[in-house]
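Students often ask why inverse folding is considered easier than folding. One informal answer: many sequences map to the same fold, so there is more than one right answer. In these notes we will look at a single instance of the problem. The structure comes first.
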């Protein structure tokens, strides 16, 4: 079932966390942020929406890093029910795709809950003060290949945040598969 992420809550302050990546390195907000801010993406291995855009996510992450942003992806799904999202498969995907960012394992699902993540992919772009400025889609393609001339909405937003500290007022919600919550741990 496809879900849409909520509209950006401008100025919402990023919540600190400590998560290990697929190489065993622990990361926090302080270790991830760049001088321009942070792009935090909730993704997973099995979602067809993520699979359709993962190459573009990697491409855009590299560009966003050049703008001075830290970039990280978080996987919060229940891997017991969705084994393709297991830690071993996270490691495999990160290696195969050559992720240019840490791929963090949110085994407790606490980070997804704290951020209000609802789908994969779900993009959270924070300025240098770690205030939310963009919660929109990568681009208009959804699960389809990007059409020629397709606006790169996430990259455009990140450029604006890098130069002004503020995100675009017009944003289109990301759409994707729901976060796969463990039974009994769904957010209220």
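Output (designed amino acids):
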């Amino acid at each position: 079932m496809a879900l849409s992420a909520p509209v950006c809550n401008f100025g919402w302050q990023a919540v600190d966390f400590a998560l290990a990546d697929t190489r065993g390195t622990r990361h926090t907000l302080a270790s991830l942020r760049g001088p321009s801010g942070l792009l935090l993406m909730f993704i997973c291995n099995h979602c067809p929406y993520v699979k359709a855009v993962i190459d573009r996510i990697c491409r855009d992450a590299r560009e966003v890093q050049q703008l001075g942003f830290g970039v990280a992806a978080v996987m919060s799904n229940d891997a017991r029910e969705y084994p393709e999202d297991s830690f071993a498969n996270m490691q495999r995907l990160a290696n195969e795709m050559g992720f240019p960012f840490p791929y963090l394992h949110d085994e407790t699902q606490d980070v997804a809950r704290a951020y209000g993540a609802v789908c994969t992919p779900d993009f959270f772009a924070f300025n240098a003060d770690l205030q939310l400025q963009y919660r929109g889609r990568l681009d208009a393609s959804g699960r389809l290949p990007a059409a020629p001339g397709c606006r790169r909405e996430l990259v455009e937003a990140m450029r604006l945040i890098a130069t002004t500290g503020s995100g675009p007022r017009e944003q289109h919600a990301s759409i994707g598969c729901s976060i796969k919550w463990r039974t009994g741990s769904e957010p209220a």
